[in-house]
Amino acid sequence: MSTTAASGVSEKTIALDLLNSAKQAVMLYARAINEAQNQQLRNVLEKQMMDAVHYQQSLAQFAIQQGYYQAKMEPMQMVKQNLQEASQAMGYQMV
Asked: Is the pTM value of this prediction over 0.70?
């Protein structure tokens, strides 16, 4: 297990903290999209949410490959579930 020299924080801790933050970001973007009244702002937020979903997917794959995270489902299935939950939070169906 590797640690950062300066702080002694493990790579696993960093990876899992980033993964949790990425999951929260997706849900926060969904909430912001739901609240936004301006369509241009909604479009920007939707793109940022999709970027956050892809970032989460990358982090999840890294954490799984390193043995830091035991996913209950395949990473792509996890991303699809997160997108579905986000779309429900925004009040519309994703295709």
From this structure: no
